[in-house]
Amino acid sequence: MATEGQAVVLRGGWPERAGSYRLPEYAAGNASRAVMAFCGRHQRFEPSGESEPVEDRSLPVFRFACSTASAE
Questions:
Q1: Which contiguous run of DSSP H or E holds residue 35?
Q2: CA distance 34 to 45
Q3: Is the whole model's pTM more than 0.85, yes or no?
C-alpha cells in the first residue's frame, strides 16, 4: 500500500469537486466507500465496479451515494 493512499475517481456530488481523489492511507485497504466532508455534511461515495484511465493507470470509479449531516 502506498503511504499516500489509493487514488480513485469520484463521480457525482457537488459541482466544485475535482474528478479524482486520493483515499487516506487508513481507508485504502478497505475501499468499500469514500467519505468526504463538504459544507458541514459527509458526502458518501460507493464503488461502481468500473474503472477509468487516468494518466498511465486505471483507477476505480466511486459514485455519489448520499449526503448526511455531520455530528457536532
A1: strand 34-38
A2: 5
A3: no
